[in-house]
Amino acid sequence: MRIKAINRSEEECTRERSQDLQKVHKNLDPSLHPLEKATEYTRALNAAKLERIFAKPFVAAFAHDDGITCLAKNPQRLNSLIAGSADGDIRLWDIPSRRCLRRLVGHTAGVKGVAATPSGDACVSCSTDCTVRLWRIPAAGMQPAAEPQEAQAALEFHGANGFRAIDHHWQGDRFATAGAQVDVWDHARSEPMSTFRWGAESALSVRFNPVEPEIFTSTGSDRSIALYDLRSSTPIRKLIMQTRSNAIAWNPLEAFNFTVASEDCNLYTYDMRKLDMAACLHQDFVSAVMDLDYSPTGREFVAGSYDRSVRMFSYNGGHSKEVFHTKRMQRVFSVRFSADGSYVFSGSDDMNVRIWKADASAPLGKLLPRQKQTQAYNQALIRRFKHLPEINRIVRHRHVPKPIYKAGKLRRTIVDADARKLQNVMKHSKPGSVKVKPARQKKIVGQEE
Amino acid sequence: MSKKRKQGQLGARLPRKASKQTDVYEAEEANDDESNLRRFDAVENYEYETPSEFEDEEIDEDLAFTAEDEQQFGSIIGGSAASDGEEASPDAEGGFEELPESDDEELPTSEAADPLDQESREDIEGPAAADHESVGGRSADELEDDEAYNAMIQAVQGEAAAATRAPQQQRRRESVATEACPESEYNVPLDSHADGEGHELDIRDMLRSLRPEQRSRMGPNRKRLEGLSKKGKAVAAPLPTLIRQRQERKAGYEDRVEDIAKWQPIIKANREAPTLTFTTGQERAAKPGSVAALAATFTPDNKMEAEIAAVLEKAGATSSKQVEQSESAAALKAMSADEAKERQNRLAKMRSLLLHHEAKARRLKAIKSKSFHRQANRAAKRKAAKEAGAEGDEEVMRGMEEEAEFRRAQERLTMKHRNSSKWAKHALRRGAHLLDSSTKSAVNEQLRLGQELKQKAERVEGASSSSDEDEGLASSTSGSDGETAEGIRADRREARAERRRKAADARTRRAATSMLDGSDEPDGEQKGLFSLPFMKRAMEKRKLEAQQEAQEVLRELDAEEGQEQPPSAAPSGRMSFTAAASSQAAQEVTDLRQHLQHADGSDAEEDQDAKHERLKAAAAEDAAGASSAAQAALPDSLPGSANLADLLGWDDETPDKAHVRSKPASGKGRKQKSKAAQGDSGATKARKAQEDVQHSSVVAEPSRAEASAVGCLSGEAPAGRDPVSMDGVLARVAAAQRSRLFPAANGTSSHDPLQQQPTAAGSAPNGSLDFIQAPQFSGSKPGYAFSKGPQGLGYYTESSQLRPAQPSLQPTTSAPQHKDGLGNGVAAQAKGGKGKRRGMANGALQHDKGLPSAVDEGGSSGEEDGGLAGAMAPMKGAEMSQRELVAQAFAGDDVEADFQQMKDAEVAEEVPKVEEPSMLPGWGTWAGQQREPKWMRDARVKAQKEKDAALKARKDAKLKAVVVSERWDKRAAKYGTPDVPFPFHSRAIYDQSMRQPIGKDYNPTSSYRDMTRPPVLKEAGSIIQPIQFSRSYAEQSKERGAVSKRRKTAVVSGGVPAAGRR
């Protein structure tokens, strides 16, 4: 028996020089491939449908004993997630094995914020019990799952008032807390290194810039967003909006851009240099946005809202590109992106930390090169044909729970009515007398120097 | 707040009594009064109301302030009468309170815009405001304060200073009041009370208060202190904290903003890159090689390592080979003698086994296949035969010959040398450049073989064919002379001519018979146009005609054979002016002539093309010979003779043949022939026709010569520059035509046009043709036909009597020019004939050019004839030009009108329907109304207008040959967007972006990858670090931005932006 194996001679397929043309093994004559647009359109349509079919974003849920108030990812360990809950309990989760590694016990009141150190072997948490605690956190080993051990805080910092939020510096041993004022602490000191106050209102959240680590921001209950620089003793700029901002996040790829989660259901991306107008307005939520976090790729971010949904936005997209919700998920208080940009964590009032795939339809396993290529081709097709009516409809369609749907509809009605009214006013006013502010500027009250 | 403050100020200014009465805030104090008891009873007047009988006291300013008052309020009235009440407030408060004030002034907008903030500010300023309030309230206690203050100053300054104080103050010095705050050095107000002196407490005051012994005790320090106080100048007061802080913040922000702008180029580059790639950055680190590679390059470089190396060396363990050797040695040492022997045996056995195996393999290798042996045997035999052949063995030679014969037969069967095998055809079809070297060589080999065989065959036939050809050539060159000037030229051997004619006759006969039985038809399927049914029909028809001709020719030949003279009566036939038909007939005749001419040749087996090629030269004289007989019949104007004239329609065709043929002749410089041909065709033809009327074909020969002579005399010689092309044949043929077409003018008006022109116009005998000489052809005129006729170039009246002679199917080439104006069949025919003649025979063209009036026409017709060149060569249907055929095929079609009609119908379907009122009897009109009512008329006009507008708005309104459908196509709609999507600004750009497919089937791999690369590429499971600043990358990006060179990917490797792929 003769066996004919498919083979190729290396000589034929190897170029002598890199400038040489690649040998083409197929005939690319367009006349041999007619109706290419129709073919690709059909492929795109199929790809869009398949994408929707495979869109199963929910991965797992980790249970706590009370509502989750804060989450933190470990900048050094991909498999680690820290979650703080309203009963003062902090749990360290090993994500792949879906088990709790440690329970960090000590806070006597609800934990309001938690953050990991840049080295990844410790975390700090703040609570309304007026303390900030520093905990050592172990790496998840290979040992089989056991009952989670309890651990005590390594360090304890006391403040005069309860704390609302905490964030750790991206390089040094410093962290910032928000409360009655913004404090910057050092691991080695029991008193804050510096305290920033601007006005009497308390700060709600604080976040360091990952790219320019000396810069950080806070949001305040006076509806302000304040910029700070660790090198100067005072805050450097304050932006006041019409509604309160609940959270803030810096783009890890773009040093001067940050996004705030506003109480008015929208998110605003600002360029730190031009605070008179938002760079982008992200909408789609129907209730206050509680938290947001950027993907480490800087190309998208995730936000959680009081309307019980989690949405993904493109860094420059006006509307969400993805929405996650489950039947039992309650108010979302905290969201985080995983350090590799592939997963999203959300902590909600229903005592669960949920894990979602950032790309809802992406396969989880390792892909063969051909599979990768097919995926890429399908995605490219969808990107190319996304404007065509049928594909657009399929790609954009998302099912949302009835309350969200209704609230969204109501919001649209209101917005439309406002727009209509404005049109009418303009129609019956002296031309130019009605000044229309763009939506990106409408909610800005002013800047304080 | 400000309101309260104002009240405070008011309180400070008013006399104490009045203020006490009106101040509502003094309610507590009022309790102490006698009114306390009546407090809850009916009150006449509330304190905040002025009593009805109240009269404001008119107090003179001078009287209002007594000395005591002056003493008390001197600071206000005297020191700064116009100053604000605030300044009257205690000094302890002074430093603090101006800040909120200034703050209010500085930030009006923020405060107004931010009610909450204002609130908070009020909270901050709460204590201050309370102080203000108390200023008003406690203004009564100011005296005590002043006293206390003065007392304190006194106490500090001591007795020395006391002497300088005012007597009033001295008076009150003793009465030291207790202070609100504990007295200490920290509570000393910086600013002295503004008591008119403006005195400030300084170091000198302190020193002055010292007693002399204390002073002396201070020693040199006292002097230093005094000097300090003298020298010390006031430093400008620092800015208020709030302003200072604001400035700091502003500076800090601006600094940050400026600094952070360095990221701009990087961020821009990353945003613009179609793909952003994140890598861990660990792939950049060089990977260590294998352990062996590491060990191979290892050299001990410190003491310990050297030591270890030495030990290893000593133990024989430096390399693996050494270790092996030493191990085997150790193993042998460890074995006993028996064991060693056993091992040796075992090894020996293994060795012998190996040897055996090797031998077996060698034997197997030697075994070959059957085919191999066959080939090998054959090769051996061949070798042996060769050797034997060299020795001269008869038998072997015969055997070889036999084998060669066999191979030849095989070759004939397989026809390998023709490359006609399936494989060879396939290979050739694929194209020579695609063949690999072996195939190419095989094909070449076959070709070479074929060539060789051909040569061999030619060599065998060489002698006869070449001699034949020479003969043919000789006869062709001299043929016309021999025949046309039969009597004149004596150098032509009569016998030879006779023989040749006979041979030609025989060949003609053969051809005719073959034509009749249809054996000469090209076999096999016709392709292209010729396979169309109407073409087939036309061919059939022509064939029929040709067969008729052939019959006639046969008959003629028979007659000729009978009396050695052409028959006077031509065979009868249908009168036809169809150019194609006539040319076909001419073709047939030509073929016949060729056959006649070369009947003696040994080329029977040659194919027609080759024959044709070879015999071209002889055709002219053949034609002449053939025509000579026919011409005689022409003047008779018999219906039957028309066919012969038709036959002579080959004047379309013959001249070119004559021309082609003339080439060798002209090369040989046959002047005699040229002389005969020098006459102008028109003149000669005319003469010929005239003569032909009178003479029989026998006498025609000399007269023809005469005609040529006349032609010579008439000065036409320079016109006929190509001597050979202007054949007698030509002249005769044209003349025959003319004589047929101009029966009336025949004989009288047909003369040399140039000579006859002036007279021709006047003496046109019947006046049937109106001739206008054209200096230049500028399109046809209605009622006139431009042509070259017997009277030269110009316009002829379109005479209805000539109309019937118009050919039903004209050659396309001449058709466009003569279509409208050229109804004249004569003109058309003559023109067609001339044109072709000119185009094909260069001489004819030159001849025409020689005519002064024919330059333009010559140019145009020459041009049109260029396309006809192919058609004119051998007059075979298959060789007619496609163009001509197409023109013939679609002669009756008015494609444009059809299309317009179709377009109208389609457009009418797409244009929106407009309701038009229609006149229904009894509807919309009054009874008995005759005319169309106005509304209906208007409605109709309106509808028409709308329709017109709709038609005009169509895209294809101005495009004559295009229908652009504007129907909304549901199927096509899904491939397009209703409007241009967001990032695009124009439809064209969007469409262009969609044009190129991105799939693998349509693109090479590299561009496929580029087009399908996702916008973000990241490695699964690797942490992506926040980006770090890289100065070099920022600069690169900036430069790249300037020249707008974009990368395909931007790479962030372990948080550091790196140069990606371009």
Automatic annotation (TrEMBL), chain A:
It comes from the Eukaryota. Residues 428-449 are annotated as: Disordered. This is DDB1- and CUL4-associated factor 13. It comes from Apatococcus lobatus. Residues 358-444 form the Sof1-like protein domain. Keywords: Nucleus, Repeat, Ribonucleoprotein, WD repeat. The keyword Cell inner membrane does not apply. It is found in: Nucleus, Nucleolus. GO terms for cellular component: small-subunit processome. One of its GO terms (biological process) is maturation of SSU-rRNA from tricistronic rRNA transcript (SSU-rRNA, 5.8S rRNA, LSU-rRNA). Belongs to the WD repeat DCAF13/WDSOF1 family. Pfam families: Sof1 (PF04158), WD40 (PF00400).
TrEMBL record, chain B:
Residues 25-34, 44-71, 84-117 have a biased composition (Acidic residues). Its main location: nucleus. InterPro entries: SSU_processome_Utp14. Signal peptide: none annotated. Keywords: Nucleus, Phosphoprotein. GO terms for cellular component: small-subunit processome. GO terms for biological process: rRNA processing. Residues 118-141, 192-216, 385-403, 451-461, 486-508, 537-557, 590-601 have a biased composition (Basic and acidic residues). The keyword tRNA-binding does not apply. This is U3 small nucleolar RNA-associated protein 14.
